[in-house]
Design goal:
By secondary structure, this protein is mainly beta. The chain has a domain of about 110 residues: Immunoglobulin-like (Sandwich), CATH 2.60.40. It contains 1 helix and 11 strands. A 4-stranded antiparallel beta sheet has the order 1-2-7-6, with no helix packed on it. A 3-stranded antiparallel beta sheet has the order 3-4-5, with no helix packed on it. A two-stranded antiparallel sheet has the order 8-11. The C terminus is likely disordered. This is Heat shock protein Hsp20.
Length: about 170
């Protein structure tokens, strides 16, 4: 007589579901979606992805049309004469695509891969850099003001293009 083991039943059900829907054991259908951290500062964007077990040669980064795409592959190493009793880590390929605002320069993307962490830096474009503008008043130079291209200062009304008719 066999004792009822709920954990064994759950494990068998999980294995049947993996086989039915192409679980992570099949490296051709497995999809990885590693988490990403996205930070922004005055220099630009920084995206950080964890890619443990991925070789640098298996990473491809494409940047075009305000889109940044990261593709990578984590290979499963099958060995003859060795039986896998459990394969829980994800293997296969993945692709993540990020929409990047026009104020960033995709022609100057830099990437570093260190100890399984991919760091991608996208600098601000020259047109979006903060710059100092000298303001003249009555022909005299006043204190310079720093403005961010494409944005007004917080709390300031935005300039309107066109005209509005006022009832007279």
């Amino acid at each position: 007589m066999m004792r009822f083991d709920p954990f064994r039943e759950i494990e068998e059900l999980t294995q049947r579901m993996d086989r039915a829907f192409g679980g992570a054991v099949n490296s051709q259908t497995a999809r990885l979606a590693p988490p990403v951290d996205v930070h922004e500062d005055e220099q630009g964007l920084e995206l950080t992805l964890d890619l443990p077990g991925v070789q640098p040669d298996d990473i491809q980064i494409e940047a075009e049309n305000q889109t940044l795409t990261v593709q990578a592959q984590r290979r499963y190493n099958r060995q003859e004469g060795r039986t896998a009793h459990r394969v829980e880590r994800a293997y296969g390929t993945f692709s993540r695509t990020f929409s990047v605002p026009a104020k960033y320069d995709l022609t100057k993307v830099e990437a570093d891969f260190d100890h399984g962490t991919l760091t991608i830096r996208v600098p601000r474009s020259e047109a979006a850099q903060k710059r100092t503008v000298n303001v003249r008043s009555g022909g005299q130079l006043n204190a310079p003001k720093t403005v961010d291209a494409g944005q007004g200062q917080p709390g300031e009304p935005q300039p309107q293009i066109g005209s509005q008719d006022q009832p007279g």
